[in-house]
Specification:
Elements (H helix, E strand, L loop, with lengths): L3 E5 L2 H6 L6 E6 L16 H7 L7 H18 E11 L4 H12 L4 E8 L14 E8 L17 H7 L5 E3 L2 E3 L14 E3 L19 H11 L5 E4 L6 H8 L3 E6 L2 H13 L7 E4 L5 H5 L3 H11 L3 E2 L11 E2 L6 E4 L7 H15 L6 E7 L4 H11 L3 E7 H5 L3 E3 L4 E3 L3
Parallel strand pairs: 1-10, 1-11, 2-3, 2-9, 4-8, 9-10, 14-15, 15-16
Antiparallel strand pairs: 3-5, 4-5, 6-7, 12-13, 13-14, 17-18
Length: 412
């Protein structure tokens, strides 16, 4: 594989196009069976189309939906490969039974419990503060490098080991045990805190997992140069860690917003964009016109390195903010945006800034604008409004960047 791959599409369809036994390690963190809307991460329409009717038949529908994908994942995994399935209590036991059927009961290796602390303590129950990660191999000939993931001994263990461990067998004493200088062999329960809101790793993805969790998985179960696959790649944590550990990687997600976020995350971390083969993202205006509204908004926001509005509906006419100065951005999936849109955006800017700002600044992005729209922009400039109008084609051609609160053209 010459380039790492970032693929936008239904993972079942994408996996069906992949060759048999072509990846070395698979980690997936699929949407949990929660019957709650928070699992549709962005609320964008691509995800909604994929997931909206999945729960209608209850747990059996969800498990069948997952089984189709895990069968394909088993097919593309090499015979020496390992599969990690991240889930929680909602469907974990059902997924275990199904995965036993696909991978074989004897190929089940570990039920890893990821433990963490946090708020949200129930009144009449113990706190649910763990996720489950099922680990399977495809055969008995699988990779596991414990020295790569050893952990420090506890103070109690080190104190005991000062006197050396002794065991008695047939009246013979063995006292030659000593601690491994590289650390302790990890158990199948991992105490790791989730990301805090202020963590430098944090993206805008609500269910983001910490890199240290994926570091243990990837370092223990693959070699440098191996191919790591994440078929529900979300915000790309598995891909970012694989990159840092000198593995190749393939990421698949149905959401264009996720693909755009991952691309920006990797490039920001220093990855050369020319080393990433991005597949399934829009290449033309016609492609973008087919996007559902939230998909379209998030694509635009990510392309200009902006910040999405936290509100998906009722956003008062502001769909995002520029990165540094947080100037408001309104996005219209329309041709010939007219004077009335400019009028409405004036109201949104007043509401956003209040009455204490001398100059009210914002952007409107659309496929095209009428002569009346440009005339209105020129008129309101005299009243202290600075509104910039940008065409989608410029963004598609990567000729526009909104990074410093001012419009700048650049050649990418």
């Amino acid at each position: 594989m010459d380039k790492n791959k970032l693929i936008c599409g239904d993972n079942l369809e994408v996996l069906a196009t992949m060759e048999k036994e072509c990846v070395d390690l698979i980690y997936i963190d699929p949407p949990f069976f929660s019957n709650r809307n928070y699992e549709i991460i962005w609320g964008d329409e691509a995800e909604i189309r994929s997931f909206e009717d999945r729960w209608e038949g209850g747990i059996n529908v969800y498990i069948e939906w997952m089984k189709q994908r895990i069968i394909e994942l088993h097919r593309v995994l090499k015979s020496t490969g390992t599969f990690y399935l991240h889930c929680d209590w909602h469907a974990g036991h059902y997924l275990k039974v199904m995965a036993d059927e696909v991978f074989g009961y004897n190929n089940f290796r570990n039920e890893i419990i990821w433990c963490y602390r946090g708020g949200g303590v129930p009144i009449k129950d113990y706190s649910r503060k763990h996720d489950t990660i099922f680990r399977y191999s495809k055969s008995n000939n699988y990779l596991f490098y414990v020295d790569e993931v050893r952990i420090p001994y506890s103070e109690e263990s080190m104190e005991r080991l000062e006197y050396k461990a002794r065991s008695f067998r047939k009246n013979k004493t063995y006292d030659n045990y000593s601690p491994n200088p590289k650390g302790k062999h990890p158990e199948d329960w991992w105490i790791m805190q989730p990301l805090m809101p202020s963590d430098k790793e944090r993206t805008s993805y609500p269910t983001q997992k910490p890199e240290r969790l994926l570091q243990r998985i990837i370092a223990s179960s693959s070699d440098k140069g191996d191919i790591v696959l994440d078929a529900f790649c979300g915000c790309g944590t598995a891909l970012a860690v694989a990159q840092k550990l000198n593995r190749k990687w393939i990421g698949i997600d149905i959401s264009p917003a996720s693909i755009a976020l991952i691309k920006n995350r990797l490039v920001k971390s220093g990855v050369d964009k020319d080393t990433i083969d991005i597949i399934g993202m829009p290449q033309s205006i016609d492609d973008l016109k087919k996007f559902r509204p939230f998909d379209f908004q998030y694509w635009v926001i990510n392309e200009i390195h902006g910040v999405p509005s936290p509100r998906k509906v009722g956003d008062m006419g502001i769909d995002g903010l520029s990165f540094l100065n947080h100037y408001p951005i309104q996005i219209k999936q329309s041709e010939n945006v007219g004077r009335n849109v400019i009028d409405n955006f004036e109201t949104a800017l007043r509401r956003y800034y209040g009455n204490n700002i001398r100059e009210l600044f914002g952007y409107i992005i659309a496929f095209s604008f009428t002569k009346g729209a440009y005339e209105e922009v020129a008129r309101v400039k005299k009243e202290g409004f600075r509104i910039e109008l940008f065409n989608i084609q410029d963004i598609l051609n990567r000729n526009i960047s909104i990074l410093r609160g001012e419009a700048t053209l650049f050649n990418a």
